[in-house]
Amino acid sequence: MPPDNPHDIHTGSTTGVPVNRRRMVDWLLGTSLGAFLLSVLYPIARYLVPPASAESSVASVTLPIKASEVKANTGHIFKFGNRPAILIRTARGELRAYSAICTHLNCTVQYRPDLAHIWCACHDGHYDLNGRNIQGPPPRPLEMFAVNVRNDEIIVRKTS
Amino acid sequence: MYLESVRRWLDARIGLTDLGTIARKKEIPIHRHSIWYYLGGMTLFLFTVQVVTGILLLLYYRPSAEEAYESVQFLMAEVQFGWLVRSIHAWSANLMIFALFVHMLSVLLLRAYRPPREITWLSGMALFGLALGLGFTGYLLPWNTLALFATKVGTDIPGAVPVVGDFIRLVLRGGEDVTGATLTRFYGIHVAVLPALTTACLALHVYLVQRHGMSVPLDVDRGSSVRKMPFLPSFLLRDLIGWLVAVAVLVSLAAFFPTELGEKADPFGSAPASIRPEWYFMFMFQTLKLLPAHVLGVEGETVGVLAFAAGGLLLTLVPFLDRAAARGERNRLLTFLSLALIAYMVAFTVYGYTSSAGR
After folding, report:
1. Helix intervals (H) in A49-128
2. Could you read off the pLDDT of B258-281 as tens digits, one per residue?
3. What is the CATH number of domain A60-158?
4. Which of A145, A155, B160, B200 has a CA-to-CA distance to B13 between 20 and 30 Å?
5. With an 8 Å Cβ cutoff, are B300 and A137 in contact?
6. Shortest Cα distance from B273 to chain A (angstroms)?
């Protein structure tokens, strides 16, 4: 931008290079303003992101329910760390456990005795007893856990 | 005499005469589509009902997972007229969104967004988004089962957006899952952030409506033959009648269908079979339900969410896309698309309410 005023050009510099004072001042003001905004917005942005809660390192849980109390063709939601999981006794009497978080949009699934498989009420998603998504919108199978019974106590642990 | 001196004192300081001149200059065209001019004022009236009842609710509500449900229970059962205030807040929210839908769709069909009213439309779309945000955040506050799962689903939806989705979800929820932290966050957004933004957008919107006057539809003769009525007092009195009817409807709905509280949210319970969102999200909910797990190799929910986002963007940009209306010409394609949009929303809302959840 050409200076409006010849006094804006400072020609007295020892290098002989004309310095446009107005541009210099604009640059200083602009960067100061930018730095100021940044120093305000950065803490706010960081404040909005919640601190990472310690990722649940739970690898296995002992359920508060006894194996003999779980009837055939029923499902029970239990806490696996801080996430819901589901324990199922199939009609044949086998115990199985899966993550209860629907892979579609995060709802908590349930066991449907009338269908003998897992169902999510939110968007009508269905999973078979291997946790595979068989009908409706869920894109992935449910994570399957290993179930062990020792002295009537049910222990569920991650498989991997 | 005394009043006159007060008036003169105020006039010298805030310019009452100027304001009066502006108000008297405002005129409303009279034609066969004039009825739609009442919808904006109706939405504004219902918004003020929301502000008043919302402030009243604040006096008893406690925003934490431990106390929220109990505080609403106390409000409904113990506080004098607590049930009435909460029911009016909930019903007025629904009616406001409905009035807003009708207002927006009538503006769309009558092409009232034509130049120079593009920014009026944009500020209106912003208000529409804010209203949906208010509805979504307010739904969680009673901390009941329906709200918990609706919020789990609703906050997971931005997670379907590629790249930034997970981050948005984390910030919205205040953590990995929907917990008390989400409730506190939604409370702050519902009572402070969104009302402040709404007030700012509303000020711009109303200012622009005053500045440009009411838009006269293309198919109405735009010559001097369009009759007009003064806003003060003729139109305002008609507005008032509408608002009185709204109050009567609100109180009747609140009295005969008081808002229920439901069961307290249990983060370790299954989603109930009766799960459904607010009616104005129903058409999207039903669409997501019908999408297959994968569409052309992409997850169905991602496709659905991106399609809704694209649709919203197209609707927002309508004043810039509809060049025909800007030239004062008809645009049959847009009329057809608008009607198809309305038909889709109505049909999927009805479908969502009539289809049984389980099969």
Report:
1. none
2. 999 999 998 888 888 878 888 999
3. 2.102.10.10
4. B200
5. yes
6. 5
